[in-house]
Amino acid sequence: MGTEWVKSLVHYLDDFLFGGPEDTPVCQMMLDTFSDICEELGVPIASEKSVGPVTSLKFLGLVIDTVEMVVRIPQDKLLKLKSLLEPILFNKKITHKDLESVVGLEVSVWIVGSSLIRNAFVHARSRTGGVNLGLHRIGVKIWWQGYGGMGLKDLESTIKRLMKYEKAPKYLVLHIAGNDFGKTKLGFLRNEIKATLEKVQSYLPNSSIVWSQILPRTNWRHSISQDSMMACRIRINSAIASFVLKNGGHYIKYPDILPNSTFLKEDGVHLTDLGNDIFLNNLQGALEMFICSGSYTYPDTFGTSMYILSNFKTVLATVLSQLHPHFSGG
């Protein structure tokens, strides 16, 4: 078989699809081989997300049916589209912006937070892709709203003010609460964040809330105990991420940003150029994943290590012949 079967491998970001002839073990063999290779390379896989071999499955938001030989839009998406179109049918006219929203030409994203967001916006302007992080190609328009010293108490009034100027976004990315650590007890802060997010969601019922992980620091505004604040950060991020995901939202993590001078400036709070690059890269990757593949967490179990494989098909074919010599025959 050689490595010809690699041509039956398709992947987009961290979603992989294998194909093979009917009534053969080819698909299962490819899946097993892929799993073995990932284990050999130390790449974790979320096994609970693996499907098949089957003749019908959802891939990148579409259902592929190899029996009927069709690719169809899932029923839930059709119902959602119908709900968007029905109100328009009763209007005599529609604005250009509303039309773009319905047909999917524009995906509005608000990114709201403290000076970390303001600085990220400034840094994004000098990067390839600009303030829309290169996502204009899939219709994304980002509105950056970063305010120095912003705390949790400021979020509700900020959202109300923004709603006066712009239509509700598809995604609301919130990077907040880092400035609130040490002011109150952990349990109170956790409950306060949840209550605030519930209020924000009530103002924007059709927007998906994205919790942007609170970053590590070496200097906390209301505490001198670094170990205590870092422990609180982990617990708050975990609790709020679970809360947001449970309510249909999304979660962005930044595992590569560490509390040291490589990523943080001398003030121990704001990001260096490298830190901002990583922060923006994760925002870009997360938004693209959420929009294009329906993921809820970024990076997820598998995606964390995918950057290791810059040319996956070539690597897969090479390693395959070494791990499984019987596949490399004529």
TrEMBL record:
Top-level taxonomy: Eukaryota, Metazoa, Spiralia, Lophotrochozoa, Mollusca
PANTHER family: REVERSE TRANSCRIPTASE DOMAIN-CONTAINING PROTEIN
Name of the protein described by the UniProt record: Reverse transcriptase domain-containing protein
Record domain Reverse transcriptase: where: 1-64
Domain of life: Eukaryota
